[in-house]
C-alpha cells in the first residue's frame, strides 16, 4: 500500500507538504499540489480516515439533517451538499427526520456520536431551545436567530408570483400557503400578498403541508370554490392540485391557472408543464457547506445569513385572462 513517505520521495517534497495537499490543511502552490495529487493517483493512495481523525482531531465528515427526503427539494439540496463536501475532502452523513421534532433531536445526537466536524440543518421546527448542537451548525432554507444560515429569497419569489398573476389580468386567486411555522412559507405568502397588492382579490386561503397530502379543506377549496388562478406553496402542492383539477374535468390553464414554487425535476414533465419559481439548489448547497467550513475555521466570526436569488420559470400552466 502506498504511503505518504513514498509520495513525498517521488514528488521531492516533505511529508508535511504531502499531508497538507491531501488533507487540505494549509495552502500549497498549484504546481506542487498537481504533482502530489498525480503521484497519489498513480500509486492508488487511499488515506486512512481513522488515522487522520486521530492526528487532526477531526472526522473529515459533516452531517446533513433534513426534514423529509420524500420531498424532491431536499434530495436535490443533499446532492449539492455532498458534492461540495467531497470536493473539500469530507464525507457526508445524512439523517431524515420524517418531519418529526423528536426524530430531529435524535438526529443531532446521532451526528454527535459520529463526531462530525459540523452540520447543515434544515429545521423541522425553528426552535433552537430544544436542540443540543454537538458541533458548528449552519441552517439551510429556514433561518434561526443566532446561527449562520443560507436561504433563497422566498419573499421576492412570492412577489414574482403575485406580480405575474396581476399582470395577466386574473380576477381572483386561491392561495394554498405553506405551514405558517416555517420561515420559507411565511416569506412566500407575505411576498405573494405584496405582489398582488389591490389588483387581484384573494378568493380563499388554506394552509397546507409541503407535500402531496393537502387535506380535505384544501381539496374542497380547489374543487368547489372557483378562482381564475391557484398559487401553491410548492411544486408538490401544485402537482396534486393539477391532478385534482384533471380528475374533475377542469382544464388548466383554460379554466384555471396553477403556479408552483421550487422547480423540482417533475415540474417540467407533468401536464401541463408547471409555471413556477426556481430555487438555486446547487448554489444553496454549495453556499451552506462553504459557510459551515468558515464557521469551523473561525468559530468567533460574526453570524452570517445569505439569501440567494430565485428565478421565474414560465411554462404552460399559467395564462393571461
TrEMBL record:
It holds the Pfam family LacI. Keywords: DNA-binding, Repressor, Transcription, Transcription regulation. PROSITE patterns: HTH_LACI_1 (PS00356), HTH_LACI_2 (PS50932). It comes from the Bacteria. Residues 2-56 form the HTH lacI-type domain. SUPFAM superfamilies: lambda repressor-like DNA-binding domains, Periplasmic binding protein-like I. The keyword Secreted does not apply. GO terms for molecular function: DNA-binding transcription factor activity; transcription cis-regulatory region binding. CDD domains: HTH_LacI, PBP1_LacI_sugar_binding-like. This is LacI family DNA-binding transcriptional regulator. It comes from Kaustia mangrovi.
